[in-house]
Amino acid sequence: MGGGSELSANEAKLIDAARDAATRAYAPYSDYAVGAALLFDDGTVIAGSNVENASYGLSLCAETTAVAKALNEGRRGGLVAVAVTGPADKGDGAPITPCGRCRQVLSELAQLGGTDPAILCVGQNEVRRVRLSDLLPHAFGPASLD
Question: What CATH architecture is 9-87+98-135?
Answer without folding.
Answer: 3-Layer(aba) Sandwich (3.40)
